[in-house]
Amino acid sequence: MVGGGDPYFREANVVELARHLHGLGIRQIDGEVKVVPPFRFLGQPDALASARRLTELLRDPQQPYPVALGGSGSTLEELPAELHCRVSYTSPPLGSLLQILNSNIDWAMAAALLAELGGPKALVEYLRRRLVTEPAAQLDPALLPSEAEIRLEGQELHLSPRALAHLWQHLLAATDENPARILPVAGLGHSPLQLRTLPPGTVAQVGSAPNRLMMLGQLPNGTYFVLLNHGPDLGSLRQH
Length: 240
Prior knowledge:
With about 240 residues, this protein is α/β, with parallel strands linked by helices. Among the domains are: about 10-75, no CATH class; about 180-240, no CATH class. About 35% of the residues lie in helices and about 15% in strands. The protein has seven helices and nine strands; from the N terminus they run αββαββαααββαβββα. It has a three-stranded antiparallel β-sheet with strand order 7-8-9. A two-stranded parallel sheet has the order 1-3. β7 (about 205-210) and β8 (about 210-220) form a beta hairpin. The mean pLDDT is about 90.
């Protein structure tokens, strides 16, 4: 299995892989599953753990297309010289991945996507360029953030309210004024928005750290908002 960084390879994909192997007449493999990073099963950063879990699922007699395997799974640092591709898989597009991520707050998936983007420092550099150096034309110049308002503290990303407001303008531009393409909507489905008392139809993104809560979005009447609250009691902040 050769990985390309897909953060959302999951059980259903393993069943589809097993079905394809059965279609090729393959019911037994004498060797073991070997994984070439960056292959992530459900965003799992440990390639060996991903290989072993993949092996368990492929050989599981309860799944509809079990495949007998000779080992428990291992990793390879590079592809062997002789390689014959039996099946290929393409992840959902980035917009769909973001919609899944923002509706479920899957931390492993978020970490996998962040790794593909180059890590936290690369993300901060990108945000500083887009929000400070290349500001959105429709934003009031008085609201432009400084670089100091976009920073890392440890591994936590800190954005000021002005930076978040500017980020929202870029998000609108990237989604053709329809942020619901990648963000959850209050009153629809199961998402972190269900923990907030918001008017149905509100499109928003929420986030939290040990002592702060963030929410930015758009009310049904089109009003944009940014909320950034600090305090020790997150439950109380959510109520407010």
